[in-house]
Amino acid sequence: MKTDMKAYWKTNIGYMVVLLSIWALVSYVFGILLVNELNSIRLGGFPLGFWFAQQGAIYVFVMLIFVYFLLMRRLDRKYDIDE
Amino acid sequence: MSIQLWTYVMVGATFALYMSIAWVSRVRDTRGFYVAGGGVPPLANGMATAADWMSAASFLGMAGLISFYGYAGCMYLMGWTGGYVLLALLLAPYLRKFGKFTVPDFVGDRYYSGVARLVALVCAVFVSLTYVAGQMRGVGIVFSRFLEVDVNTGVFIGMAIVFFYAGLGGMKGITWTQVAQYGVLIVAFLIPAVAISAKITGVAIPQLGFGSTIVSGPDAGIYLLEKLDQIGTDLGFAAYTTAFGNGSKPMLDVFCITMALMVGTAGLPHVIVRFYTVPTVRGARLSAVYAILFIAVLYTTAPAVAAFARYNLINSLNDVAYTQAPNWFRNWERTGLIAWLDKNGDGIVQYRAGTAFAGKPSFTGVTGPNGERMVGNAPSASANELYVDRDIIVLANPEIANLPPWVIALVAAGGLAAALSTASGLLLVIASSISHDLYYRMVNRQATEQQRLRLGRAMIGVAVCVAGYFGIHPPGFVAQVVALAFGLAASSFFPTLVLGIFWKRASREGAIAGMVCGIGFTMLYIVQTKFMGMAPWCFGISPEGIGCVGMLLNFAVTYVVTRMTPAPPQAVQEMVESIRIPRGAGAAIDH
């Protein structure tokens, strides 16, 4: 049981690190640090950096939280600790 | 029917709806009062969280800010949504498993200390009070513009409504009214946005529309954003989509403000307690999914509204003779939120970069040669003649775009829903901090269920009165203290909660020292720069973004002090182990 929970927690932390890296990438890197570089690329009428800062990052946030929910639901079942 | 009549109908109907929901969901025990019995379905909790979170500032203020800031408006957009990723991944599931009533509950139990509980309690009350004052003010403004009642009367009506449903139903009443309020506010935000998008670009989805081309008028065929960039450059503003240009915020500042708002969001007590109300840990994760989804609907529409509003505003006012100006211009001029100062005496409105005059307009009561209300302010050096209060962009937008009266009335009802839903969530945090954390946990552990419930209701009453007082007599610094609310939430709760969950070793001494240093630094910096006129000495970071530095300081101090002090008792370490495992959340609810 004890070792099981260690593995469970480790997997959970792994998921979080990956998802939070994506979170930081789209908002801070694409939306702020590289915004002027990305603005030279256009996405229809949007400069790409501007689009990430005012639209894209928010869509990614929604997906990240949804993916975390799915991953953890599977993980909880695998370790038989769901409700 | 006139706009005013429509507004009476819309506001009356929505208020009647809130009251009947409150009556149906009244409660009799403290668990119902503080956490809605822990039985709220995730979908409903997601809607309630979204309404709780989106305040008068999100609904009325944000699009206006973006409209004036252009690109830099992204700090609000990302800052006020990205925090939910932190909340969903780092806090919500674990706090739900812990399963008590308030945030100070967790801090007090995890750090086995009454002092930590008290520090958390004071922060929770302070953060919530600063926030709620702004909501009451928002209620007053909507009432005064659309129902032509006095701002103060508007605040009184708002107070009465909130007291009725928060006092009667506690968290349960608040939750179900918030579900209804989300419905009202999102419809009210989307209908004008869709109509305006269709009108300007021919695309009915605002999120796509503001990246499309303009369909009619002299600018037909040009991308809207390209046009805005061009207008900006022509009139001397910074280009709309470019970052960190002339006169806009530097990169470091945008970075820090975004971070402070995100972390502050994740640390705001009225948002965190919403996750105590669902039955399971999985329910907490799922309601975070719904919450961000429902919030994203408004937050991705707002930048589109901002761009349309800017285009419309410049098009319908700039280089137009005052006597030819549209009706809405006079309506808003009467409220004092728009003013025109004919600097060059040509009778034509010139809208340029810079302020028209210093401060808010002070009208002399004299009518000028063109029929405008004369202002007594000394004109500034810029060529700009127009003063537009940013807060009216959303409210005036439907009028600017010539939408029918019922849409304008709906927007008024939506603004009220946004303000009231947030106010009620905040009032509950204040009431539960006093009646539960302070009275029951620290003063009288023998208090009966009845006594605690009665005290909780009485505290809602007191909090409503305090909030109303600040709504009627707004301290000049309301806008400034919102920075303080986020800064404090970011520098106190967030690090303390995260370390409490992810680092078993974090000790009482570490947490208290961390919180005190984080808050102390943040507060000092904000007071120095906002109230004492000092230059922002920390790398030029504005006071709005300093919570980010306060947070890092809190993490660092907690780490160092923890390393020098004994590890937490075995029981606490076991508690941390147990909150990491979802099973048993249903049972973990009571004390």
Count of distinct structural domains of chain B: 1
Radius of gyration of chain A: 17 Å
Share in helix of chain A: over 70%
Name the CATH architecture of chain B: Up-down Bundle
Please tell me what the overall shape of chain A is.
elongated
Structural class of chain A: mainly alpha
Largest sheet of chain A: 2 strands, antiparallel
Q: Topology as H/E string of chain A? A: HHEEH
The termini of chain B sit apart by 56 Å
Give the helix tally of chain B.
Answer: 22
Order of helices and strands of chain B: HHHHHHHHHHHHHEHEEEEEHHHHHHHH
Main attributes?
heterodimer; A: 83 residues; mainly alpha; two-stranded antiparallel sheet; 5% strand; B: 591 residues; Sodium/glucose cotransporter; 22 helices
Give structural notes.
The complex is a heterodimer of chains A (83) and B (591). Chain A is mainly alpha-helical and 83 residues long. Chain A contains three helices and two strands, in the order ααββα. Chain A has helices at residues 2-33, 35-38, 48-78, and strands spanning 42-43, 46-47. In chain A, strands 1-2 form a two-stranded antiparallel sheet. Chain B is mainly alpha-helical. The model of chain B has no long low-confidence stretch (mean pLDDT 88). The longest helix of chain B is centred in the first third of the chain and has 51 residues, at 151-201. In chain B, the strands form three sheets. Chain B has a two-stranded antiparallel ribbon with strand order 1-3. A two-stranded antiparallel sheet of chain B has the order 2-6. In chain B, strands 4-5 form a two-stranded antiparallel ribbon. Chain B is globular, with a radius of gyration of 24 Å. In chain B, helix 15 runs antiparallel to helix 16 (405-443). The interface between A and B is large, with 43 and 54 residues.
